[in-house]
């Protein structure tokens, strides 16, 4: 079996790493399975791309489509044009896409139109919020996927509602958690740990990059100032995403507790998260990782496509207003963290299950 694996953005790299390891394990057992890794170039900053390849031992991509930034349509179109050529030059049995970025959708469309089977890892999750580009990418991708791999029974049920064939839906667990499990003993403190006087539990990790939170400069500032004031004695470590950095420009923010740092590599970032007092974020992936690490997480969004992080895990859905955050964070300080568990099959073995199932197709 010849698989082309597509990855374009930071969360994709984290998701493909254990899938590649699972394939290589099968190869070492003499099983006939090969892969070709295609990087679309959607994320190209060193600290959003190369660092993850190095730290997670992901092999150098066989091809880089180098599409870089652009509007939604420019980026999607550029990926489709380049990936069509890639598939013509390097035919395969199956294209595997992960997550919900533009590369996921663009490459799924090209593969399907080239009569190649499409596999979607992290299929079926839905926020119900069509203002998010990711939600459109999820719906389009799943509408043409042949083999669905899901992280939850809710995601599988969503696919059934959309009319997917039950035989093609496989609830296997979470590849993001495979990476976490495989690397937990490798995480390490960032260089600024001592310099900033960080100790376990004396800081909050903050990440914000979703358009709804960062694209309007004034509301972003209000949010950052509110979070800074909320922290009390705690410091706030804020790895600033390039999108957020571009909006902030060179404004002076006058924040007392907030320390802005570059986007962190995976091993430093997971160390920061694991040892933090709490996380405030608008990321989906981070709400999964905090769930498994048992770290309280406050999500600055009105909805989540990962409801199990809330019903089972440590995630609290805040909305986007600082007032709501103040109230919910205050409740947490008063009442302590809510009891939390780990969702079914988030056990670090999802990738092995995926490859096992694909080999039977
Ligand atoms: N991440 C990281 N360094 C950072 C911020 C995030 O390694 O400075 C990791 C994080 O642990 C998670 C992934 O990047 O695994 C999430 O990426 P992002 O928030 O960009 O995407 P989303 O999950 O919202 O799609």
TrEMBL record:
Keyword field: Isomerase
InterPro entries on file: UDP_GlcNAc_Epimerase_2_dom, WecB-like
Keyword Oxidoreductase tagged: no
Coiled coil: none
Domain UDP-N-acetylglucosamine 2-epimerase, first and last residues per copy: 32-358
Family from the record: Belongs to the UDP-N-acetylglucosamine 2-epimerase family.
The protein's name: UDP-N-acetylglucosamine 2-epimerase (Non-hydrolyzing)
Native species: Flavobacterium cheonhonense
């Amino acid at each position: 079996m010849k698989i082309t694996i597509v990855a374009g953005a930071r969360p994709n790299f984290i998701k493909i790493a254990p899938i590649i390891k699972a394939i290589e394990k099968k190869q070492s057992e003499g099983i006939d399975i090969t892969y070709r890794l295609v990087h679309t170039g959607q994320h190209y900053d060193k600290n959003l791309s190369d660092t993850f390849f190095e730290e997670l031992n992901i092999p150098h991509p066989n091809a880089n489509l180098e599409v870089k930034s652009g509007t939604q349509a420019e980026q999607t179109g550029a990926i489709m044009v380049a990936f069509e050529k890639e598939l013509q030059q390097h035919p395969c049995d199956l294209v595997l896409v992960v997550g919900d970025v533009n590369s996921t959708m663009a490459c799924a469309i090209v593969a399907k139109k080239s009569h190649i089977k499409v596999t979607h890892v992290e299929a079926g999750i839905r926020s119900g919020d069509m203002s998010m580009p990711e939600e459109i990418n999820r719906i389009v991708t799943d509408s043409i996927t042949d083999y669905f791999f899901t992280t939850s029974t809710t995601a599988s049920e969503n696919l059934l509602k959309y009319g997917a064939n039950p035989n093609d839906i496989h609830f296997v667990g979470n590849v993001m958690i495979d990476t976490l499990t495989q690397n937990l003993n490798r995480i390490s403190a960032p260089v600024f740990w001592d310099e900033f006087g960080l100790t376990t539990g004396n800081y909050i990790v903050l990440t914000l990059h979703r358009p709804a939170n960062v694209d309007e400069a004034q509301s972003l500032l209000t949010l950052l100032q509110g979070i800074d004031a909320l922290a009390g004695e705690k410091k706030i470590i804020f790895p600033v995403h390039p999108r957020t950095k571009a909006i902030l420009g060179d404004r002076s923010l006058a924040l007392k507790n907030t320390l802005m740092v570059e986007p962190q590599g995976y091993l430093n970032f997971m160390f920061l998260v694991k040892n933090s007092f709490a996380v405030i974020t608008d990321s989906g992936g981070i709400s999964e990782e905090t769930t498994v690490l048992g770290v309280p997480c406050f999500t600055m969004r009105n909805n989540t496509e990962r409801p199990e992080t809330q019903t089972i895990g440590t995630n609290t859905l805040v909305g986007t207003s600082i007032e709501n955050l103040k109230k919910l964070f205050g409740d947490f300080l008063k009442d302590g963290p809510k009891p939390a568990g780990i969702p079914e099959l988030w056990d670090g073995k999802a990738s092995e299950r995926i490859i096992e199932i694909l080999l039977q197709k």
